[in-house]
């Protein structure tokens, strides 16, 4: 079984590696950043709700970097462990056993970002 990553380290490394794409593909990265900003902007759904949805999708596609970035955002937005757990319950309901196993990683990421440095 693969070890659960250190999500703070993982998000730092991914961010660092994305710098190459920002330099080499500025139009693509600007387009992605504009899309992210538009999708996460508060509207009928607030930013925290949208981040909870993103976390569930990260579980569904088994993206460790997604778990890291979205749990970090959820901590910043004041999400509670219970809100994260209920979100993960929906991911498990929709994705079955594999989503349950990956939800454990999401909890690890949330706890890691919730612990003061």
Automatic annotation (TrEMBL):
Gene3D superfamilies: AhpD-like. Transmembrane segments: none annotated. SUPFAM superfamilies: AhpD-like. Residues 26-107 form the Carboxymuconolactone decarboxylase-like domain. NCBIfam families: ahpD_dom. This is Carboxymuconolactone decarboxylase family protein. It comes from Massilia solisilvae.
